[in-house]
Amino acid sequence: QAKKRGKSCCQFFTTEINTAATEQLALKNLLRRALARKEFQLYYQPIINMESGAIVSVEALIRWVDPELGLISPNTFIPLAEENGLILPLGEWVLQTACTQAKIWNQSNPYPVRIAINLSARQLEQTDFSERVSEILKKTPFPTDHLELELTESMLINRMESSLKTLNTLKKMGCRLSLDDFGTGYSPLAYLKRFPIDTVKIDRSFVQGISIDPDDAAITTAVTTMAHSLKRAVIAKGVETREQLNFLNEIKVDEAQGYFISYPVPAEELTQKLREKSHLLS
Ligand code: C2E
Ligand code: MG
Ligand code: MG
Known about the structure:
Elements: H1 2-36, E1 40-49, E2 55-66, E3 70-72, H2 74-83, H3 87-108, E4 114-118, H4 121-125, H5 129-139, E5 147-151, H6 153-156, H7 160-173, E6 176-182, H8 188-194, E7 199-202, H9 204-207, H10 214-229, E8 233-236, H11 242-250, E9 255-256, H12 267-275
Parallel strand pairs: 2-4, 4-5, 5-6, 6-7, 7-8, 8-9
Antiparallel strand pairs: 1-2, 1-9, 2-3
Helix pairs in contact: 3-5, 5-7
């Protein structure tokens, strides 16, 4: 009986692993097709200035809607696109599309917004990445200081030297660089010291605990003070309540982003939001 159970137990696991692997393979193939069929879309989430309440920046967040599977989260498909290399054409599409959109917004909006784009390690590892960015900006033409590239510690861990070189070039071109998910890695200070980072984005996991966990409130305050003394700007992510927003305002966080301010929305909806003057402060 036990033997039998043991066997079926193993079979169960093998099947499960196979299913997962098959699913991943299937998804990878679907991804290729999706790029050709233009099934990707960008959503945009506003980032507000804490003093004026105005939208000063917009983060582009990719969405994939497969005709049969429906909406697939970037947390699921970005890692797969990284594995099969599709992240390179996909990443270029994101850069091109987001810059084109931001340019349109800035033509009609008296207060220009920055466009923030998430990069993947594979993109940064391309030796000609900065030239590619520069090509896109030439095609669009879009002011480089309105382009903000989001990096994470984990994507900088390998190939530090070549990444540093690329980031220095991007910095010289005028791009802004921000360190995303700040506080969740192993040595955030080392990265701040080593790379030409303008802005840190405090991770949602701290912001969400602000009103319930004194440690999270203390960490958020300490990170903000520290970043400011290093002359870096601070963006708080994942703001979901008025209480959190008030706290962040008190500790002088520069900018905020989160569902309380706005969900990520399609471009047309963001155009509408940009027309409204101030957002949620007071
Ligand atoms: P991220 O860069 O940390 O982006 C923030 C994520 O938090 C987004 O998830 C956003 O929808 C979500 N979010 C925003 N405000 C709140 C809030 O108040 N509460 C909660 N619970 N969540 C909030 P999303 O859009 O599913 O993206 C997930 C991740 O996928 C991103 O995390 C980013 O790492 C990656 N990603 C998205 N678009 C791209 C892209 O174009 N290229 C690359 N390489 N990665 C991307
Ligand atoms: Mg991000
Ligand atoms: Mg993240």
